[in-house]
Amino acid sequence: MKGKLLNYDPEKGLFQIEACIYEGGGGQPADRIKVKGPGFYIESDEAFKEKGGTFWKVRSISGEVPKTEVEVDVVIDELWRLEVSQQHTAQHIFSALAEQLYGWPSEGFAIFDDESKIELLGADEDPEKYAQLERQVNEVILRQIPVRVYVTEEVDEKLRKHTDYEHPRIVEIEGIDKCACGGTHVTNTGYVGGFAILKVERKNTRYVRVIFAAGIRLARIAKNYIEREQKLKNLLTGDVEERVFQLLEQKKQLELEKKNLLELVKVQIAQSDEVFWKNLPLDMQSMKQIAAYCNEKDKDIVLVNQEGYFAMGGPNANMHFEAFREKGASGGGKGVITGKLTNNDK
Ligand SMILES: [Zn+2]
């Protein structure tokens, strides 16, 4: 496709271009484009609108861009355009059916890089209703209804949403939806290729947010999940759910064993004549429990683990702590005193 590069600001990394491309808006992201001119090449996948028009962000650039306007070749990422058009067309069908079936108008529509959202005004969260909606959207896809786009001379009061345009661009899916819209769409509902609601969540008292995906995007999401599941299977060596359940059971068992061992250890330590125990393979919580037990028994105890954390108790705990503090340890507490030695004094 031919186009015209109007200007390029190397400091901001922005350029303006005239071509038959979608510049974004109405919840739909812009085309992803490649611009080839005499001696330079630019890629962009983001545009925004400002007072001075639409600005494209440079993602990558090579060569020298001239200071004046220049004729260029523009190539659109057609798969991205299809993906976005599938989401957008699916949204028309979904929004029309949500309003028709349950009287829920759509607002706050947006297509993101990996998912799309619609916010339904006054909707509830009944899963049955969403299952029904999902099914009906897929039935409209199955029926392969043409998606007609035209500019009308008169404002039709039967539009799904109000428009202020005098000559609005109408997108019509016969018998399903008729709406003023400036976005890109597939030419037939069949090309939406499949639709799924991925999440339904309450946004606030007024709105329910629906996350959905259609077509090649839905396929990509499914593929990502299957790859992730396979990685987890390899990591866990077996069925993910089964193995997670087993591991949780094992964890419970180990915690119980740890608790029993700790009971045994704390009695042994309390009965021993030793006061100083260093380099213990215990965490702070376990040491605190032992120190608290010794404290109850009026037994002096100083426990230090391999990381240099300590817990102490007994009648002379304060004295032992002072000795530690003089060597730079930090910490505190009443009854049981806990803290950490300096790094070079374990
Ligand atoms: Zn549209």
TrEMBL record:
Pfam families: tRNA_SAD. Keywords: Aminoacyl-tRNA synthetase, Coiled coil, Ligase, Metal-binding, Zinc. Residues 168-211 form the Threonyl/alanyl tRNA synthetase SAD domain. InterPro entries: Alanyl-tRNA_Editing_Enzymes, Thr/Ala-tRNA-synth_IIc_edit, tRNA_SAD. SMART domains: tRNA_SAD. GO terms for biological process: tRNA aminoacylation. The keyword Kinase does not apply. It comes from the Bacteria. Its EC number is 6.1.1.7. GO terms for molecular function: alanine-tRNA ligase activity; aminoacyl-tRNA deacylase activity; ATP binding; metal ion binding. Residues 244-271 form a coiled coil. Its cofactor is Zn(2+). This is Alanyl-tRNA synthetase (Alanine--tRNA ligase) (AlaRS), putative.
